[in-house]
Amino acid sequence: MANHQLDLVRVDRERWLKQYYFIRAAFSVAWVVAALAAGASSAAIAGALLVLYPAWDAAANFVDASRSGGLNQNRTQALNVIVSLVTTIAVLIALQTSMNAVLGVFGTWAIMSGLLQLGTAIRRWKSFGAQWAMVLSGGQSALAGGFFVFQATTPMSPTIATVTGYAAVGAVYFLVSAVWLAVSEWRQHRRAQLG
Question: How much is the pTM?
């Protein structure tokens, strides 16, 4: 009986993760489209989008951790919520200085949130599928962040377009994870029907 209840909890959490990854992918795609369509021509829209991105990450991590056993059981995500909220405020402040400062803040955030995402994926690896994509995503985020920090120190003036590739790659990783979990769920359902 206890094992059956644990299986139901695991299945419920895996379904949630599938939905969560689809939602994260959809948001990232919408953000990239908005950044390319409107952000390039309006500094105000670009600024709002740059503030929105880490704020969304904080909210998404909070909801995922809450749905996955709470913040106490998901400390990497709890830290990610704090890091992303601090980054949201830091981006607001950096926007008053320069886009180089914004890119430096974004890069620092990408490093920290990427490493925390990597930690979350490693912790989930034994229990849930598709975590290999989240491990790659977290690692690549940290590397991209390092590149952003370096770019921020150069004389060139970055734009929101500098960050769109990062967001687009994140969308791909979330989509791959969501599809992977959907296919796994379909296979398990087929096996149950046939078996």
Answer: 0.90
